[in-house]
């Protein structure tokens, strides 16, 4: 008799992919990032993106124990699932930016560098200026 194992993550399916717009570039990066982070957190994949969960390193790479092999396999599955979640939620022009990358952490960092830093910086600057303005009642 076999028993089902509980996976440490999940993959969204069906209408979940329509929950928010695909990343098009700078124009919707901030909203996409917030939504994508929520999806990855709900699927328990966010720690792969942040790097708080990394690929296990066997004590002796030449002779891996069954537990080490299982831990490596489990991490690879989580990493692949996080990659799929991101890859299915970007449009074709963004996919060309990602290229052949499959590491979800590197992809997230690349997208942040490409689309996020300048726009978030500009929005932050504008927000600060608005907050510093005094309302004169006119």
Question: Could you please describe the fold and organization of this structure?
Answer:
There is one protein chain. The chain is mainly α. It has one domain (20-57, 65-124). Helix content is 56%, strand content 0%. The longest helix is centred in the last third of the chain and has 29 residues, at 104-132. The chain starts with 28 loop residues before the first helix and ends in a 6-residue tail after the last helix.
Proportion of beta-strand residues: under 5%
Spatial separation of the terminal alpha carbons: 77 Å
Outline type:
elongated
Please count the helical segments: 5
Largest sheet: none
Essential attributes:
single chain, 138 residues, mainly alpha, 5 helices, 56% helix, elongated, disordered N terminus
How is this fold's topology laid out?
Elements: H1 29-42, H2 46-50, H3 66-87, H4 92-98, H5 104-132
């Amino acid at each position: 008799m076999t028993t089902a194992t509980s996976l440490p993550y999940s993959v969204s399916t069906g209408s979940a992919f329509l929950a928010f717009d695909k990343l098009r570039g700078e124009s919707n990066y901030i909203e996409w990032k917030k939504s994508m982070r929520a999806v990855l957190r709900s699927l328990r994949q966010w720690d792969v993106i942040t790097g708080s969960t990394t690929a296990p390193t066997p004590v002796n790479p030449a002779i891996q124990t069954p537990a080490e092999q299982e831990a490596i396999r489990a991490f690879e599955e989580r990493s692949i699932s996080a990659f799929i979640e991101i890859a299915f939620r970007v449009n074709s022009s963004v996919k060309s930016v990602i290229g052949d990358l499959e590491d979800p952490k590197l992809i997230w960092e690349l997208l942040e560098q490409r689309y996020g830093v300048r726009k978030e910086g500009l929005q932050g600057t504008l927000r600060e200026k608005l907050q510093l303005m005094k309302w004169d009642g006119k």
